[in-house]
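Everyone, describe these structure tokens:
***
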Amino acid sequence: MEYKAVQNLVTQLMILVQLLSRNTTLEPLVLVAQEAENVYETEYTRDSVDNKITEYLDILFYDNSHISVIADPESYTLEIIPASSQDYAGERLITIKKKN
């Protein structure tokens, strides 16, 4: 893996950790993986860990401050946006998109 790819992943992780650390309640985080036409959604709270999440997102949440991303940074990007739909009001969407 190239140095720049590792540096980009570290930067994304630092931003992700900072944003998650601001979420002081146990509200669920909605994790969305988008690849081509397929969209998978799974809800987790910060305190729940399910290794099956790697089947969808290649991302593991261990606790409030420790995040491990095993997705290929050359192939995936992370986006963190506030949820806009009423279904997810007040929650964050963490989106992992496969690059073209």
Q: What stands out?
A: Confidence is low (pLDDT under 50) at residues 23-71. The chain has one domain: 3-98. The helical segments are 3-21, 53-56. Residues 60 and 68 are 5 Å apart (CA to CA).
